[in-house]
Design goal:
Blueprint: E1 2-6, E2 9-13, H1 15-30, E3 35-42, E4 48-55, E5 61-65, H2 76-89
Antiparallel strand pairs: 1-2, 1-5, 3-4
Length: about 110
């Protein structure tokens, strides 16, 4: 679990959610853009819910490990969406072709 510090407050969220938020915030800052996102959090009362954050170039975010207080807030769909939006903001990268297994190795004796 991570405590994500945002503006003058903080929220508790899962490790993977926190990483996705930070990566997306960095990508937005690099493109001088902003967005409002919803992330799963654990409230002070121990209730799972969603927090809405405005992230962009002026966002000052950081996270610290936090003791687990039950189930980590986690939502695979939100993480996938944040990761996809992050990739869309970054320059394309060539993907390496998978090694071929249908060709004989000519260097073998």
């Amino acid at each position: 679990m991570r405590r994500l510090y945002y503006s003058s407050g903080s929220l508790l969220t899962g490790d993977e959610v926190c990483k996705a938020v930070l990566r997306y915030a960095r990508a937005l800052a690099e493109t001088d853009d902003a967005d409002i996102i919803a992330v799963p959090v654990l409230t002070d009362d121990g209730i799972l819910g969603l927090a809405h954050l405005l992230v962009g170039p002026a966002s000052q975010l950081f996270s610290m490990p936090a003791p687990s207080q039950g189930d980590d807030p986690f939502d695979a769909d939100i993480i996938d969406k944040l990761n996809a939006m992050t990739r869309a903001l970054q320059p394309s990268r060539p993907e390496a072709e998978a090694p071929r297994t249908d060709v004989l190795d000519l260097d073998m004796p």
